[in-house]
Design brief:
By secondary structure, this protein is an alpha+beta fold. The protein has two domains: 3-74, no CATH class; 81-139, Nucleic acid-binding proteins (OB fold (Dihydrolipoamide Acetyltransferase, E2P)), CATH 2.40.50. The protein has three helices and five strands. It has helices at 3-17, 26-39, 46-74, and strands at residues 88-96, 101-106, 109-114, 124-131, 134-139. The protein has a five-stranded mixed beta barrel. Helix 1 (3-17) packs antiparallel against helix 2 (26-39). The longest helix has 29 residues, at 46-74.
Length: 140
């Protein structure tokens, strides 16, 4: 087999492997192998091709790290307690930091509050963290 054929087969196998792995790890590698297979038409020397493959891998992974993976990570929706952080809640029971009382409502659920400030009923507060089954709130 010619070098370009070997590189192309490995590239296609890596692209197909991406269907079975949700990591976006084999996709950039497959693309780098295919680009190197295109360059193999001009050179048959394996030392040159392996150097070109190394450069192509670095470039493709850098592009994925800068442009693809951040967009994929942003598309994820937080579903656990950390998904509440940054949300605005409404005080349903007055928050008194000295007595340790108070409740807020978020998404139809009531949450016990931990805060270093007092808030009146109806006030809108920002959830800044969680402490067990309590939320830590602060002003908007």
């Amino acid at each position: 087999m010619e070098p370009w054929q070997i590189l192309a087969v490995v590239g296609v196998v890596l692209l197909l492997a991406e269907f079975f792995t949700p990591s976006f790890f084999t996709l950039p590698a497959g693309l780098a192998f295919l680009v190197t297979a295109g360059l193999a038409v001009f050179s048959q020397d394996w030392r040159i091709l392996l150097g070109a493959l190394t450069v192509n891998l670095l470039i493709v992974y850098w592009i994925f790290q800068r442009h693809v993976w951040p967009r994929v990570k942003k598309a994820r929706t937080e579903t656990n307690a950390s998904g509440m952080i940054g949300q605005t809640a409404v005080v349903t029971e007055a928050v008194d930091p000295d007595a340790g009382t108070g409740y807020v409502k978020l998404y139809g659920d009531s949450w016990r509050v931990v805060s270093d400030r007092a808030f009146d009923v109806g006030a809108k507060v920002k959830i800044v963290g969680t402490d067990g089954n309590k939320v830590i709130v602060g002003p908007l």
